[in-house]
Recover the amino acids of this structure.
């Protein structure tokens, strides 16, 4: 990307060279600070988790034992909880979000589309703690008294839906996360659909396609960008803390049932960090933060490359994660 | 039909898609309608419950009084409201100069590999989970200071605000027409004065909007404050002491086994959303009235 400046005229006085240089240096220092902060995040989480990494090595990621009293820490239940709750959220939100994005971009009149897109973006500005108390006080009683007993009665033969209707647990966390990542998926996918060439639609319709077949053609063209939007949503779900902490039940064990309480990497940090006694305990929690950081880093890096590539480098996605 | 015969007129009529393609079409289109309706539903439900459960306990005392001990009815979250404002201001004091500076640099000087690395790093920072930022701020500030403090919370919020401010500032400053810069240079202004007194003021409305958006987001953050600013049931305006904040209060009150506290958590959530909206409205209006200089 070029700078928006005309070339310096050749005979221009160099009177201001020093002031210009100093000003530029100052701004460059601010830009460097962005790196410094990124480096500090890496450095701090690596340093803090050093003790735990040295003590447990790779078994930290494969052990299910989380015993602060005995000083043995394994993060597998939390890794599992994070992956399952986020996976469940994507399972719910991807079809819904895609359908809504197609509706907003292709079917609705432009003004309706803009209005609904605005409402959806409002969802993104609600603090996660608000989703949390909604999940805890509204969704959980509904699940406990209505949805979960129904699931147990009709699908209880599956290990996925056996157990007791607690209300809070993996299912609740998955639903709340789905609601939270929907704005990301819907608004980005809509923008990507709107940026595909009109001619694609027109050509498909001219060949005798129905609307839905034409939409299929457009979706095909927009696939990398939509995939990027979905993965960005996944990145958000993986790192989400407060809402999940409030509705997942905070039990550090792995259960096949979605109705059972669980815990995620983010929720265990939120719950136990201030109570962590002893260096090893604290270090183990920081290592969980490190693992979570690396996981979201990978997911976001892939997503941003996909979105960037799909939008031809034009669209800004900085504020949407 | 043999090819020798002229085709009947009705063969020239477009027949339209077959019934199964039409049925599939109708199915897909109505599924999209349904999906859009389902996506809007949670927002409607959340707003409805916020109002229904938050409004009854909302009164002047909530804004002016301190939290009461368990069992005593009434009380408010005055300290938490003030605390949230202080924490956000602290975060802004860190993030706004750096973020606007880096954004202006990206737009005005940002060329080549270093600039794209800064852009990419800012984008990556935007994806760092807020709880991880909390852990980092704990290591950076709480451990050396030896105690939880408002300052640590401000640092955490500042790190969270930074990427949005950087990238949005770059976007809006880039929108300032090239002719502005040419005109200033033609008048003999050096480049730094052109940027400082022509380009930035021209983009100031956009910069303010972007900044306010970042502040509003940060005001609702809970996770990075849990073990930095911690929370406080008493008045505390000292930056080196633990400080109350609205989101942490809501979290504690929602998980407490007392119905009265749960009610107050709902009210707190409603107040938080109102505060965020009000904050952005007020900041936008007042900052836009300032003479075009920043």
């Amino acid at each position: 990307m070029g700078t928006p400046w005309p070339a310096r005229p050749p005979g221009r006085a160099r009177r201001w060279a020093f002031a210009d240089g100093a000003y530029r240096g100052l701004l460059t220092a601010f830009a460097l600070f962005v790196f410094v902060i990124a480096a500090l995040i890496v450095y701090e989480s690596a340093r803090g988790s050093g003790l735990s990494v040295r003590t447990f090595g790779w078994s930290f990621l494969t052990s299910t034992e989380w015993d602060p009293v005995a000083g043995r820490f394994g993060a597998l239940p939390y890794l599992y909880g994070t992956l399952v709750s986020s996976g469940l959220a994507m399972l719910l939100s991807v079809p819904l979000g895609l359908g809504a994005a197609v509706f907003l971009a292709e079917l609705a009149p432009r003004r309706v589309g803009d209005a609904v897109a605005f409402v959806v973006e409002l969802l993104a500005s609600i603090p996660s703690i608000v989703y949390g108390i909604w999940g805890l006080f509204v969704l959980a009683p509904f699940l406990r008294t209505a949805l979960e007993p129904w699931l147990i009665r009709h699908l209880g033969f599956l290990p996925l839906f056996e157990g007791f209707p607690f209300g809070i647990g993996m299912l609740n966390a998955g639903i709340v996360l789905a609601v939270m990542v929907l704005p990301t998926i819907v608004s980005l996918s809509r923008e990507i659909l709107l940026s595909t060439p009109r001619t694609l639609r027109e050509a498909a319709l001219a060949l005798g396609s129905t609307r839905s077949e034409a939409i299929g053609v457009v979706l095909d063209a927009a696939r990398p960008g939509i995939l990027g939007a979905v993965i960005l949503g996944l990145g958000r779900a993986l790192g989400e803390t407060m809402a999940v902490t409030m509705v997942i039940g905070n039990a550090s064990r792995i259960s096949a049932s979605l109705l059972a309480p669980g815990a995620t990497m983010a929720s265990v940090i939120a719950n136990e960090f201030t109570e962590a006694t002893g260096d090893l305990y604290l270090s183990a929690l920081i290592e969980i933060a490190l693992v979570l950081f690396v996981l979201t880093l990978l997911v976001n890096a892939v997503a941003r490359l996909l979105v960037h590539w799909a939008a031809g480098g034009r669209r800004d996605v900085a504020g949407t994660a | 039909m043999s090819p020798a015969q002229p085709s009947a007129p009705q063969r020239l009529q477009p027949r339209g898609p077959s019934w199964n393609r039409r049925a599939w079409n109708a199915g897909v289109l109505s599924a999209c309608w349904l999906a859009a309706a389902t996506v809007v539903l949670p927002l409607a439900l959340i707003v409805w419950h916020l109002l229904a459960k938050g409004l009854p306990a909302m009164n002047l005392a909530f804004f002016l009084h301190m939290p009461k001990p368990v069992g005593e009815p009434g009380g408010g979250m005055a300290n938490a409201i003030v605390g949230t404002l202080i924490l956000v201001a602290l975060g802004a004091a860190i993030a706004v100069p750096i973020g606007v500076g880096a954004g202006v640099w990206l737009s005005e000087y940002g060329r080549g590999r270093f600039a794209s690395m800064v852009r990419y790093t800012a984008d990556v920072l935007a994806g760092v989970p807020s709880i991880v930022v909390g852990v980092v701020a704990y290591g950076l500030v709480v451990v050396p200071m030896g105690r939880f403090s408002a300052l640590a919370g401000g640092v955490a919020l500042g790190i969270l605000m930074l990427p949005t401010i950087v990238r949005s500032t770059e976007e809006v400053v880039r929108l300032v027409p090239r002719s502005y810069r040419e005109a200033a240079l033609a008048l003999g202004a050096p480049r730094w004065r052109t940027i400082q007194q022509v380009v930035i003021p021209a983009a100031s409305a956009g910069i303010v909007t972007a900044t306010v958006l970042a502040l509003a987001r940060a005001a609702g953050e809970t996770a990075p404050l849990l073990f930095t600013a911690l929370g406080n049931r008493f008045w505390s305006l000292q930056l080196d002491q633990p400080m109350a904040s609205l989101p942490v209060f809501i979290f504690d009150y929602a998980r407490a086994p007392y119905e009265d506290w749960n009610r107050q958590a709902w009210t707190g959530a409603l107040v938080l959303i109102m505060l965020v909206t009000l904050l952005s409205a007020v900041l936008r209006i007042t900052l836009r009235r300032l003479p075009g200089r920043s």
User: Anything to note?
Assistant: Chain A has one domain: 59-320. The mean pLDDT of chain A is 87. The radius of gyration of chain A is 24 Å. DSSP finds twelve helices and two strands in chain A.
